[in-house]
Amino acid sequence: MAKFRRFAWPAALLSVSGALVLFAWLATANPRHYTHLMRYGKPAFVVMLVAFAVGLVVLATVLALRAGTRRRVVGITGAVLTVLGFCAGEFVVSFDLSGTDAIGSPRVVAVSADGAFELTVQPYGGWWVVYDVVQLRTRDGLRSRQSDRFVGCFAYHDDVQPEEVFSGARFTGPGEIEVSMQSGHTWTTTFDAATLRPAGQIMYGCEDAGSDAFTPR
């Protein structure tokens, strides 16, 4: 019975650690592009989550060992690894090296007539440039999804007059989208209701939007 109690906590901690790693993987992969999972798939959050999971594994190992030198050595090692993990997470927060990071929350600019879809604009910040990215999403509660292909991208570089400035977007009919610019110009495209993929994309100053130089999250 004493042996069972000795390994009960380590087993519980290992289970929690495994669940955290699984959640981090699901949030990062997110193959269906669920909008509510996207906030948890950011590199900083995933790094800190995995670091916490590693700390739980080390703690479980410590609890499973008998008192003595081994426990002290593993405990110190675990503490150092956990601190380093959280420091790495904070570094990623301050200096996001994996792409262009979102600024604030997306703003809904249009809802389809049947209430099934919405268009959002999300500002993204990079080095010396800010982007307005127009995305298509479903309105399905916890199962809401976002298209894996943005509808429009407008870049505003420091000290450079933008060619066009995003003004608004709307649904002009079933499966049809219109994007308007402050100049008065408009652009239209269609989208597939099943895949959420727009037939075309409008880009001004976002030549890198299809490359690794621009990775909106």
Task: Summarize the structure in words.
By secondary structure, the chain is of the alpha+beta class. 37% of the residues lie in helices and 25% in strands. A hairpin with a 4-residue loop joins strand 7 (176-181) and strand 8 (186-190). The longest helix has 28 residues, at 2-29. The protein is elongated, with a radius of gyration of 23 Å.
Alpha-beta classification: alpha+beta
Shape: elongated
- Average of the residue pLDDT scores: 82
Beta-strand content estimate: 25-35%
**Gyration radius, in Å:** 23 Å
Helix count equals 4
Oligomer: single chain
Stretches where pLDDT is under 50 for at least 5 consecutive residues are 209-217
Q: What is the CA–CA distance across the termini?
A: 50 Å
Q: Could you state the order of secondary-structure elements as H and E?
A: HHHHEEEEEEEEE
Q: Provide the helix percentage.
A: 25-40%
Count the strands?
A: 9
